[in-house]
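cron nightly-structures :: item 1 of 1
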Amino acid sequence: MALSFPNSSRSYDETHSRIRFLGYDGMFEVRFYVPAEVLTAGLSHWTASESDYLASFDALRSKILDAAKSAYKSRPNRSITLALEHFK
C-alpha cells in the first residue's frame, strides 16, 4: 500500500521544538516530525511562535508531504524526522 495522509491535523511539540503529523501505510501509522528550524526560513528561533511554525507548515504542506513520501519510500520506518536534506 502507498503512504497516505488522510488526516490533515498537525501539532506543535514545544518540548522538542517540532511539528508532528501522521501518515498511514495501509493500517500502519507512521509518525513524522519536522524540526522547527526547517520551517523558520531564517527567523530567529526566539522570535518564532507556535502559530508561526504551524502557519509555515501549512504553507509548505504539499512539499512536506512529498518529502515525507520520499523519505518513507527510501527507508520505511514508523517514525521519521524530516531534515533539510529531505527537501532537496
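cron nightly-structures :: done
Residues 3-87 form a domain with the Double Stranded RNA Binding Domain fold (CATH 3.30.160.140).
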